[in-house]
Design goal:
alpha/beta; Lambda Exonuclease, Chain A; two-stranded parallel sheet; 42% helix; globular
């Protein structure tokens, strides 16, 4: 990973609204490795590059609420992380590409798996090839490439499965392959959003996957956020949910917000956008972006935050939820964000980031289990 080059929009600076003077950090910023990216607003930053940045995110803050040990285990500092199941992540990336960026983006990154049933006459096994060679009164000895070459010499029109697969792979080089029915369902899911008169506009007129990297002035903690879709006046975040228990759909979505504490993410993203406005004023914008769009975005005093929930099982129905900026949810999220950053700084100063596990030694001290901590049903 190489250090990204900053693009300064000098002409844009003179047209942006006035901001409060940028104050120097109150705490010493946590050092960044030489190959890490600096503070800035990044357009078109690759997802794997974003995840590799050694910074605290909304998901990291939520992990600290579980335990600091769990946070460290899942972070970039752990030299032996768990191997995640990739299938669901790949499918989620495909949904995001299609809904946030459109069909062309999906086609650039993904392709349907080739289906043998579409080529019923293709020869695949050595037995099939030997049978055809025998019918042509040709010798049947040799390895598979030799059999294929002999068949092609005798019949240039013979269909060989290995060659079909090879040509298909070359045609779609660099793409991730998904089952055709998965791609059809993704298109089906996108239609639920795009055909809605209001939500159809949720992922238009903005930029997908906008990354903001900043340093918190109070704690010196390096932060990162990747906004699903940024519009001139709104932050839009796409969420999937299963509702396997078949709850009332409205209650199921409320449960998702509570169970996964999405209000923390909302608060962190709102903070990220405020930091982004300062970074734009400083010229720290990296990637291709329309200066007029950026000016309009920075001129908006307070962006609306909206979750778009789409069900991942059965009908891919869609519901939208706006998180008002003046409600307790956002305040709770801001509080959790501040606590998470302070806790991160405390343990960073104690243990560093060179592979030594972060351990909450104080919390490991034995404590009494009180009767009122145990549910009543346990005594029945």
């Amino acid at each position: 990973m190489s250090q990204a080059q900053e693009i300064h929009y000098d002409a844009l600076h003179n047209t942006l609204p006035d901001f409060e003077p940028f104050e120097m950090p109150q705490a010493e910023p946590i050092p960044l490795p030489d190959n890490a990216y600096g503070d800035g607003v990044y357009f078109d930053l690759a997802e794997d590059v974003y995840h590799a940045q050694p910074r605290l995110s909304a998901s990291g803050i939520k992990a600290t609420q579980a335990s600091i040990e769990d946070f460290w285990h899942d972070s970039w500092m752990n030299p032996l992380p768990d191997r995640e199941e990739k299938d669901s992540l790949t499918l989620g990336n495909a949904y995001h590409a299609r809904i946030l960026e459109g069909r062309e983006a999906l086609d650039r990154q993904f392709a349907p798996m080739i289906n043998k049933a579409d080529y019923p006459d293709a020869l695949e096994t050595m037995d099939q090839m030997k049978k055809r060679l025998k019918a042509l009164d040709l010798k049947v000895s040799g390895n598979k490439p030799e059999l294929i070459e002999r068949l092609k010499d005798a019949d240039p029109n013979v269909v060989v499965w290995d060659e079909i697969v090879s040509e298909y792979g070359k045609k779609h080089a660099g793409k991730t392959f998904l089952h055709a029915d998965q791609l059809q369902r993704i298109e089906y899911a996108a239609a639920f959003i795009e055909k809605h008169p209001t939500l159809g506009k949720a992922f238009r007129g903005g930029y997908p996957e906008v990354t903001v990297l900043w340093t918190d002035r109070e704690t010196g903690v390096r932060m990162k956020s990747r906004i699903d879709y940024l519009k001139p006046r709104a932050i839009v975040d796409l969420k999937s949910f299963a509702n396997k228990s078949m709850k009332n759909i409205e209650r199921a979505i409320t449960g998702e917000i509570a169970n996964y504490r999405y209000f923390i993410q909302a608060a962190v993203y709102c903070e990220a956008l405020e930091q982004a406005k300062e970074l734009v004023k400083m010229g720290k914008v990296i990637g291709d972006v329309d200066p007029d769009w950026l000016k309009q975005c920075c001129a908006t005093p307070e962006h609306q935050f909206m979750f778009v929930f789409q069900k991942s099982t059965k009908a891919p129905l869609v519901r939208a939820r706006i998180i008002p900026r003046d409600r307790m949810l956002i305040e709770s999220g801001r509080s959790a964000m501040k606590i998470g950053m302070r806790q991160f700084r405390e343990f960073y100063d104690r243990f560093g980031d060179q592979g030594e596990p972060w351990i909450n030694i104080e919390a490991m001290q034995p404590v009494n289990v009180e009767d009122d901590e145990i549910p009543v049903w346990a005594f029945e």
